[in-house]
Amino acid sequence: MKRTFLNFKTLCAIFLTVGAMTSCSSDDSNAGSGTDTDPEAVSRWITVAGARMGEEPGDGNGGTLIYAVSSEDAKDPRVSIEPFENGFIAPSNRTARLQSSEDGSTLFNISYAGDTGGNYTKYTVEGGQTFTQTGSEISIAPYVGTAPRWIKLFDGDQTGAAVYVSTENEFDENENYTRTNATIGVVTLDLENSLINEFQEHSVALSPEEEALGYYISRIDMPVLNDTGDKLYIGARLSKLDPATTESDSDFEILGSKTIILDYPSLLNSTVITSTVGYGNTNGYRSINAFLYNGSVYQANQSDPEGSHILKINANNEYDDSYDFNLDTALGIEDAYILAWRPAANGKAVIAYRHGGSEEGVAGAQGFFALADLMTKTATKIDAIPYDPDFYLFQYQGFVVDGTDIYVTQAPVGENGNIYVIHTETGEVTKGAELVNVEGSHFIGTF
Question: Per residue in 251-310, pLDDT tens?
Fold first, then answer.
């Protein structure tokens, strides 16, 4: 018999799991993976997030609803979870930008767009639809606008970082185009005390040769700290215009993947590094795109002509061009595109991806999950998670990493699905709780 969670059930879950919750703690040595490796931790909250349809199926513009269950219930296929009917509405005009603490007990939200865009709020997760606001609100809109791109740094849940970029074409005295200036803004936020830590702006240049051809940084996102905590890496997307007309150029040579580096915590002294292994963008989209593991930062790229790579930045703050992990090669496919990914503390990672053979679903070409190994640079498709052309992964935001287990959601747009738990050590997959959907909506991950 299915068990559907209602409020009275939530209270029972709280009493059953509260003792276990108090024993959960983060392991700072694995902070880049966002994992909880306390061997005594037997349970944590798993918060499921769903994006309601706005005007078109799968657009996610109707707001975000969240619902929390214990990890035991998340693994139980007899449990039904209905966030669209019973969930808490995460404040946001469009899809909320959510982050969770490493132990799952706290949820951080910065609303996206609209009158409340840029507002930061923090919630204690208490099970079911109960998310109790804690601490004060603060707006980062004066620094990075009402539609900020932000991420929680893996520093023990202390800091968030939000970024933006604005561009302006520059001309010489004869009105000839010379370059496009990209001004980036970066703000760091004290998540515990709701305070602004630091804000800096920089004009970030490419090489003179690249700029003369019309290349410029058009989008940035997904900051991550290096192992020593003294550098902040920011992913970047390049665009290009025609220098003769200053019109947008959509058919251009893709350059080596680039990352902006700033001193941390001062956010000063911007530099740009370039990969000779991967080409394309490193800013990702909705999900964290770069993670610290074993002293190095591993970063996905997108729109690579040879298929997405996992790139490696070493402790010297330079790309390791001897590390070549190409998803096309690993999976035997073409035109792989990493939509989202997350490693566990053992260097095994779950990758959400699509490729050249993906079918077109209700919300575009959709994808699959693979299990990858950062050390061996290998990957295998996870066949135990069903594929459906209407399974929408492009807006995927969250994976829960609990030790070496990784929790994902799978449900086609407007249809029911399930939580799946990938046991990264063995590759085995557990089919968990049922996810009850509504017309045109989809699930965007676990937190």
Answer: 999 999 999 999 999 999 999 999 999 999 999 999 999 999 999 999 999 999 999 999
Number of Cβ within 10 Å of residue 48's Cβ equals 26
pTM, full prediction: 0.90
pLDDT tens column, 161-184: 999 999 999 999 999 999 999 999
Domains of the chain listed by start with CATH number: 3-446 (2.130.10)
CA distance 140 to 120: 7
Cα–Cα distance measured from residue 436 to residue 438, given in angstroms and rounded to the nearest whole number: 7
Burial (Cβ within 10 Å: 0-12, 13-18, ≥19) of residue 97 = buried
Q: Are 108 and 100 in contact (CB under 8 A)?
A: yes
- How far apart (Å, rounded) are the C-alpha atoms in residues 83 and 61? 16
What residues contact residue 271 under an 8 Å CB cut-off, 6+ apart? 260, 261
**Alpha carbon distance 372, 165 (integer Å):** 32
Encoded amino acid at 85, one letter? E
CA-based angle 45:46:48, to the nearest 5? 140
Report the SS3 class of residue 38: coil
Report helix, strand or coil for 75: coil
